Amino acid sequence: MRLGIVAAVIVIAGVAVVVARTGAQADLIPYTDSDAVALGATLYDEHCAACHGANLEGEPNWRERDADGYLPAPPHDVNGHTWHHPDRQLFEITKYGTEAMVGGNYRSNMGGFGEVLTDDEILAVLAYIKSTWPPRVIERHDAMNAQVGN
Ligand code: HEC
Question: Residue 116: which domain range?
Fold first, then answer.
């Protein structure tokens, strides 16, 4: 009898932890935090702009692979598909790089920044990127995050 109660308490505690975690992840990218966005803008210029463009415009013909099979850097503005990925995926692509995310023999010039930037800095860069999107795109991105429980 006692054991049953203890087990039930453990199960309930477990559910509470899962719910709390999911809640904490709902807004992984702090795009409404002006300090994070300002830091992210500086980090973007230093670490991302060389490939993704000073105005997030990406490289020309970004949908076509080069002679060696590599894709150019895509835009991070509304014309690209950065906003089609939920927060966690954007974080993981930036931290680990596209090769690690796609797996297999996939080759990519998008290296991971896990050795260069802290997790918070990565989130700040992504916050800057997201803060530049028009409200309707931000809304759709928020809705997608809510759907995947990110
Ligand atoms: C050396 C060039 C280079 C730099 C520097 C670089 N990227 Fe990339 N990035 C790429 C390329 C190329 C791709 C496309 C990779 C592919 O799909 O094979 C890409 C793709 C991405 C994607 C996926 C976009 C999508 O629509 O799927 C994200 C997110 C991203 N980069 C974020 C960043 C961030 C944030 C930084 C700075 C911290 C950064 N990148 C710096 C070259 C670069």
Answer: 2-148
Q: How many domains would you assign to the chain?
A: 1
Mind listing the pLDDT tens digit for each residue in 119-140? 999 999 999 999 999 999 999 9
CA pair distance 28, 49, nearest whole angstrom: 22
CA of 137 to the centre of ligand 1 (A): 20
Residue among 46, 94, 11, 35 nearest 3 (CA): 11
pTM: 0.86
Q: What's residue 22's pLDDT? A: 46
- The CATH number given to whatever domain includes residue 39 is 1.10.760.10
- Residue bearing tokens 């954007």: 90
Residues with CB under 6 A from ligand 1: 47-48, 50-52, 71-74, 80-82, 85, 90, 93-94, 98, 108-110, 113, 125
Which pLDDT band, with edges at 50, 70 and 90, does 68 fall under? very high
